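Hello forum,

I keep getting stuck at the same step: I have a sequence, I want structure tokens, and every attempt I make locally crashes halfway through. Rather than fight my setup again tonight, could one of you with a working pipeline run this one for me? It's a single chain of 479 residues.
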Amino acid sequence: MSLKEKAVSGILWSLWQQFSGKLVGFGISITLARILEPAEFGLIAMLSLFIAIGNTLLDGGLTTSLIRTTDADQRDYSTIFYFNLIGSTILYALLFLAAPFIADFYKQPLLSSVVKVYGLILIINAFFGVQSTLLIKDMKFKQQTNIQIPAAIGGGILGIVLAKMGYGVWSLVWMGLCTSFLATAMHWIYSSWRPALIFDKACFKKHFNFGYKMTLSGILDTLYQNIYLIIIGKYFSAVQLGFYARADSISQLPISNISAAINKVAYPMFAEISDDVAQLKNVYKKLMQQVLFWNAPILIFLCVAADPLFHFLLTDKWMPSVPYFQILCICGIMYPLHAYNLNVLKVLGKSALFLKLEIVKKVLSVVGILSFISFGIYGLLYFQLFFNFVAYYINSFYSGKLIFYPVKEQIEDILPILALAGIVGLACYFLDMLLAHLFVPDLLRIAIIGISYAGFYYAFSLLAKLTAIRDFKQLILKK
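Reply #2:
Ran it on my machine without issues. Output:
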């Protein structure tokens, strides 16, 4: 199988894995949102930082190093497996001890007991980290799909049953634990790899020397990605945090899934051609345009259709989430491009530069957040929108220099896509205003906007002869 065929197959299966699993999870979360109160989702959102940091410490750098190591063997895999297992146990113990302080920080006494149970996810996830890495490295996304969907369904059923029985926030806790447990069990079933009684210090040192910089970068990024949850949870109510967290989670359905799906393919694919800068630039350019071609219209459509979408799916109690959601959708348009620029640094072994850029961006971001917090949640959101473009410039400037693809050239390649998506979105916004004035039912309103947006976007893409649609036909449709 050629690199192109391998990439196309991997991307399609990865997209299917991401979206099928996330759509199942989305359906479950919508059902739970109709049963539970926003404040109960807000309590879980307060803990997302601690779980995310724990997972980053375990997976952020060493597993990335495994993927880029072409001659990794049993010594490498077993060493990382035992490190993850021991590390997760230590992290859980620290989280257990910190539980009362976390509850005091947020002024939510219930969090103390929730942390002690919910934190067990760290240990459970450590049992399948290497198996998951091997599936990604071999681009076996079909197997990952067969793992992810049953685990999500099993955990979701338990969560919904407990929510209907009145368990409140605990239904979300036990749903998370059940999902992780099922995912672990199925990874061991689908993967033939088993750890040996080996912990090789030389192997650990090799992966650690590369991985610790990536881990530190990952922690900085995790802190940044969750800083809004921390600030809103600390300075505003759990209800407002619940509204923000719901808006963020729905906006992340296309953002994180398109990004994560292609990123799973992009990193190992970039690693294969890292010695050929010209080919790396060409692949990166095509990938960037394809991602934006699909990501931008989806997010702008969601922004336009936000009001009937939230009203139909979540009922009136979640309508305060709508303006948060619209701003976050616009923020997410450029998000996947950050990851691909940073992938270039990783595959070229520039982990030190990667870390320096993360530090610079996060320092600038924290200064901005502290400056805008007095303007409330909207001040924070508009700053997030502004800084998203600043961060893209910083990332693309350095990665572009390495592959001779400067920022100006990148912008010239993506500007037609952004302009077309925005113009069609503006036209559909006025159409939606008309439909709302005519009291068209929510579901029909969503359908009309969606069909109109898709039709106009596709037609004008053909008329404009966008490079992205031509590449899509050649790569996917083979025309």
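The chain has two domains: 1-211, 273-479. If your local run keeps crashing, start a new thread with the error log.
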